[in-house]
């Protein structure tokens, strides 16, 4: 009998101790001191430790639950300079066109064809009276009033690794000519500056003979300095082109011809210029392959 009482007392004590331990664990879990082994909603193991597991930390993923960040550098559109101000007044978005064959190129070509269809088709007017400076202003003006003339604006936009003297004057840089794809080193100087020239996509004499005579002086000066009508190119290509239209001259780099013709059409539409029949046909041929 005594032995049975002892066993009963031991069983009761054990039950009390077990209940007390269970209550203690429950209290710790409720207070957040201990973490549950599984997520109540997903049943997946929860992370235990100091890591957040969000992937936004700066440490490596070696048990802390965070991922390393990677520093990236965005290349400025105007290239490197000796001193890059926080807000560069010479930065101008370079006119561009998607590479031939992608959806963007197809859409741009379709839009250009639609615009081309709206342009008047006439013969060229005589070049009589054409005077570059008198009709289109001195090369180069500061029509956007940013403190820099148009030539330096375009050089800063189209060249890379540029070095300036002061806030505007581009002294050197590298150009990949859109008309050939070849690289040209630009160094300002009496015998070297001409290696890189600023081409009017719609040549000014061509503009004069296809409607610019009817524009105001301000409009002609705007045309001559419009960034959409200007590319920094190799001097040889610019000398070859002279005042030719698309019927008589196209860039040697065939991959750039779509962009070239699209810009010509956009400029002619903007300034209410017309195209001659052979020019229109040449533009349509180029756009059909874009």
- How far is the N terminus from the C terminus? 105 Å
- Count the helices. How many? 9
Query: Got a strand count?
Result: 5
Our estimate of the beta-strand percent is: 5-15%
What global shape is seen?
globular
Runs in which pLDDT lies below 50 for 5 or more consecutive residues are: 1-8, 25-93, 97-102
Structural features, described:
The chain is built from 9 helices and 5 strands. It has helices at 2-31, 103-116, 132-136, 150-158, 204-209, 217-224, 235-241, 257-270, 277-288, and strands at 160-165, 169-176, 183-187, 196-200, 230-234. The strands form 2 sheets. Strands 1-2-3 form a 3-stranded antiparallel sheet, with helices on one face. Strands 4-5 form a two-stranded antiparallel ribbon. Strand 2 and strand 3 (183-187) form a beta hairpin. Helix 2 packs parallel to helix 8 and helix 2 (103-116) runs antiparallel to helix 9 (277-288).
SSE map:
Blueprint: H1 2-31, H2 103-116, H3 132-136, H4 150-158, E1 160-165, E2 169-176, E3 183-187, E4 196-200, H5 204-209, H6 217-224, E5 230-234, H7 235-241, H8 257-270, H9 277-288
Antiparallel strand pairs: 1-2, 2-3, 4-5
Précis, in short:
The chain has 290 residues and is an alpha+beta fold.
Fill in the keyword field for this structure:
290 residues; alpha+beta
